[in-house]
Amino acid sequence: MTRSVWLKADDTVGDWETRKKRITAGLESGVDWVLVDESDIARVRELGDVKIAAFLQDTEAYVLDAEDAENDGGHEARADAYVVGKGGEGDGTVDLPSDFSGSADLTTLRRGDDRAQGAYVRIFDQDYESFAEEAAHDAEFTLVVGENWQIIPLENLIARIGDETDLVTGVTTAEEAKTAFETLELGADGVLLDTDSPDEIRKTVEVRDAAERESLDLTWAEVTAVERTGMADRVCVDTGSLLEHDEGMLVGSMGRGLFFVHAETAESPYVASRPFRVNAGAVHAYVRTPGGETKYLSELKSGDEVQVVDTQGNTREAIVGRVKIEKRPMFRVEARIETESGEDRIETLLQNAETIKVPTSEGRKAVTDVQVGDEMLVYYEDTARHFGEAVEESIIEK
Questions:
Q1: pLDDT in tens, 134-172
Q2: Which 8-state DSSP code applies to residue 305?
Q3: Residues 74-124 pLDDT 10s
Q4: From CA 258, how far away is CA 253, in angstroms rounded?
Q5: Where are the alpha helices (H) located in 166-267, listed in sequence order?
Q6: What distance in Å separates the CA atoms of residue 61 and residue 368, rounded to the nearest whole number?
Q7: How many angstroms separate the CA atoms of 297 and 282, rounded?
Q8: For the chain, which residues make up each domain, given as ranges?
Q9: Are the CB atoms for 331 and 365 separated by under 8 Å?
């Protein structure tokens, strides 16, 4: 599931200057969507690159599709999605009909011309909860805001709607967003944040990022060989992020077993620290990327994403800024690991240099100091890989 943060910035939150400050804070923090009035679409486009959802104010107006709008020169004034509910039944301005088949909001959602893709519903009571559930059958996005109670309606909607829609729930703080993402384990697909606080916007985006991240079970593998192998093409991965002292990347010659290699955060007598860099190994090796996939180190280029992991298995994403490939003397490091099916051996090539550090059960060590019998931190999964993706088939790597 891909989580999203929507920022509410329509005229109910203040005048244009107030809305502009809120939207700018959202852009700087990395929100996914802003929810605005139709009249603000062009102005938001001028502020920066973000997906725009707009409240549909005239349900009878003809909304151009993307291709027609661009050809017509009106692309700047077109939203990425339109939402019904404001000034209608969804927000309580118009009373709910006793029979939902008579709903103007639902009728607009069901039109074949794709006039609206989302529904906005304020949950005043169980009738509005039922209305949101009905809207979810036709809406790509269902935005719900609990007025008197939040968790119970959200639990009910998560349980009933399933994969029919992207369920986005209203929040005012990052703490509420965290709760929404964790409700019933599945959580909401997104949150609609209503706040002017830049700090709260930033924290909510951080909550989204944390909810998206994997947590890996790292384990110890016993070193069985450390051998000089001669020269090879070595890859340094320089990221666009500063890595912490306990962070690094997972790399290895075998897709099923990847070794933890620290970032160059430590000072040394030889070179200054480079906390954005991981000296990751030879060009043939795998490196773990977000989503549980891998790439060859030789494939990485500026703009790619790699997975950063700490020694507790917490992960995050980092953008590759530069890749440096140079010929360097190498070590072959082999390790033995106990698995459910018995014993397995994994290996990798690492540069013969004191600046390359790995975590061992005795503490952080330079690869030049690693000896047979040491325990190195690794990530192991008993699976084969095809084009970087795990597959259920037998592949021999040696």
A1: 999 999 999 999 887 667 777 888 888 777 899 999 999
A2: E
A3: 455 799 999 999 999 999 999 999 889 889 999 999 987 778 999 999 999
A4: 8
A5: 174-182, 198-212
A6: 71
A7: 7
A8: 4-61+77-212, 218-390
A9: no
Closest by alpha carbon to 251, among 265, 241, 240, 236? 236
CB within 8 Å of 26: residues ≥ 6 apart: 7, 9, 34, 50, 201
Q: What's the chain's length in residues?
A: 398
d(CA 180, CA 145): 12
What topology does CATH give the domain 4-61+77-212? TIM Barrel (3.20.20)
CA distances (Å), origin 297, targets 45, 62, 69, 137, 362: 37, 50, 42, 44, 28
Q: How far apart (Å, rounded) are the C-alpha atoms in residues 106 and 23?
A: 29
Enumerate long-range contacts of 325-329, CB under 8 Å, 24 or more apart. Answer: 325/233, 325/234, 325/235, 325/236, 325/283, 325/298, 326/233, 326/234, 326/236, 327/231, 327/232, 327/233, 327/234, 328/231, 328/232, 328/234, 328/352, 328/353, 329/228, 329/230, 329/231
Dihedral Cα 394, 396, 397, 398, nearest 10 deg = 160
Half-sphere exposure of 124 (CA within 13 A, CB side): 9
Q: Considering the entire predicted model, what is its pTM?
A: 0.77
Q: What distance in Å separates the CA atoms of residue 223 and residue 331, rounded to the nearest whole number?
A: 13
Higher-scoring residue by pLDDT: 141, 212 = 141
Cα–Cα nearest to 192, from 123, 105, 135 = 123
User: Which residue, 78, 150, 153, is CA-closest to 117?
Assistant: 78
* Side-chain half-sphere exposure of 157, counting CA atoms within 13 A: 34
Task: For residues 337 and 118, give the distance between their C-alpha atoms in angstroms, rounded to a whole number.
Answer: 51
Does CATH place domain 218-390 in 2.60.40? no
Q: Alpha-carbon distance 338 to 352, whole Å?
A: 27
Are 348 and 259 in contact by the 8 Å Cβ rule? The answer is: yes
Cβ(152)–Cβ(118) below 8 Å? no
More confident residue, 157 or 200: 200
Q: How far is CA 3 from CA 161, 190, 280, in A?
A: 16, 5, 30
